[in-house]
Automatic annotation (TrEMBL):
Keywords: Catecholamine metabolism, Methyltransferase, Neurotransmitter degradation, S-adenosyl-L-methionine, Transferase. Belongs to the class I-like SAM-binding methyltransferase superfamily. Cation-dependent O-methyltransferase family. GO terms for biological process: catecholamine metabolic process; methylation. This is catechol O-methyltransferase. It comes from the Eukaryota. Its EC number is 2.1.1.6. One of its GO terms (molecular function) is catechol O-methyltransferase activity. InterPro entries: SAM-dependent_MTases_sf (IPR029063), SAM_O-MeTrfase (IPR002935).
Amino acid sequence: MSRDFREAFLNYVLKNSHSGDASSVINTIDEYCWTQQALMNIGDGKGKILDAALQSRQPKTVLELGTFLGYSSLRMASQLPEDTLIVTIEVNPESAATARRIHEHAGVENRIQIVLDQTDRAIPRLSKQFNVDSFDFIFIDHHKEAYLSDFKLLENVGLIKRGTMIVADNIIYPGAPDYANYVRNNPHYTSTFHESTLEYDKNIRDGVEVSIRQ
């Protein structure tokens, strides 16, 4: 995505949403993506699956792989108490800067910690960096080919514990078949597929996998 494209997105959101109102910012991002340009957010449709998962788990610690422009981390912050730790990892500095501006506009910048790095480099440092033994809730929505390797890394460094809920987007399109196969056939997890459609497109089949460590 070009710098100009990010600027167009950011300018639209800042102009058309209410400062300090997370719901207004979320709705305006969805409006932009439906009417101007579809972006790689989880979106309003699958976002409801994410909302329901968060409400069922009520996590105190949240990790997101793939910040992009800040939509899903903002959506999660809007669902959770102010003392919830939300950590999100983003490799692209321009995307991270846009996300930070979105969070500031929505009034949640102090509640979301953006880690600028590759996920495989950041994950081993998270426990010490944020003083956590593990995460209650993990949302995976970055490079699909990295879903499985990063998931195994999270397991290996102990950031997934009994009761950790893992929500993974884009299971069908563009798809993460190796991740889906691993988590569905692993006796340590119960896993449920929630069918939907691709973000900001009512015609392409997609869905979200919700898994819980036993």
